Amino acid sequence: MGKIKKLGYTSRILSMFVVVFVVSAVAMIGTATANRNLDWGDAPDPEYPTLAASNGASHGYSNYYLGESVDFESDGQPNPTATGDDTGNDDEDGVTFVGSLTAGNPVTVQVTASKSGYLNAWVDFNADGDWGDPDEQIFEDVQLATGLNQLSFDVPQGATTGTTFARFRFCSDSGMCSLYGGDADNGEVEDYQVNIENTEIPEFSTIALPVAAILGLMFFFNHRKRRKD
Ligand SMILES: [Ca+2]
Ligand SMILES: [Ca+2]
Ligand SMILES: [Ca+2]
Ligand SMILES: [Ca+2]
User: Which residues neighbour ligand 1 (ion) by CB within 5 Å?
Assistant: First the structure.
């Protein structure tokens, strides 16, 4: 009986130790999560998911970033021009559009990566406040090399002319930041205001005069040449 009683006492001590260990481990994980330094976007919210309350994009602070640097914020930094993260240390420095965005045409974009990793990006081509419409994801887990990467994407024929917004997310692994909202273990999010320019053919009156002038000059010189002959 004494032995059984002793075993019961030992197992109670062991159980208590296990409970204390598990509770401490959970508390430590919770503290680590709460204290993570995160990078957030700055596209206007609403409509775009930028703030934590809107399931905005966030990335654990790491050595995977776009451009020359990444900083961390306590929450998204939305403003009307997607420049809320540019104050102080401007870390929105990894993406350069070469030339203008025009409907139906390709655009070159230069993206600088701190390490080899994966890029996902979106442009709100119909300017309806989301990046969820068909063809709005312009890069899907595209592997980047360390340094400068020259990429291109097509602006859809039906893209809405005017101001809209783009989001670029970069991280270490494929699939880690393939959605435009939500948390990723590492990397960076950079949001940009972009302009889709008008490609309409100029009105007849604006092209008729130069064309008439050229034709007139051609006729004049041709006429003079024939008189000399
Ligand atoms: Ca930042
Ligand atoms: Ca950056
Ligand atoms: Ca959209
Ligand atoms: Ca920005």
Answer: 39, 71, 85, 91
Do 43 and 31 lie in a common domain? no
Ligand sitting nearest the alpha carbon of 89: 1
Distance 155 CA to ligand 2 centre (A): 24
Give pLDDT tens digits for 100-119.
999 999 999 999 999 999 99
Burial zone of 95 (CB within 10 Å; 0-12 exposed, 13-18 middle, 19+ buried): buried
CA contacts within 13 A on the Cβ side of 76: 27
State whether 71 and 130 are in the same domain. Answer: yes
Q: How many A from CA of 105 to the centre of ligand 3?
A: 18
CA distance 139 to 153: 8
pLDDT at residue 17, rounded to an integer: 46
Full-model pTM: 0.75
Cα–Cα distance for residue pair 46/24, rounded to 1 Å: 39
In this structure, the answer to whether residues 13 and 103 fall within a common structural domain is no
Flag whether pLDDT at 12 surpasses 50. yes
Residue range of the domain that includes 68: 39-197
* pLDDT exceeds 90 at position 143: yes
Q: Name the pLDDT band for 211 (thresholds 50, 70, 90).
A: low
- Assigned domain for 80 exists: yes
Mean pLDDT over 126-151 rounds to 98
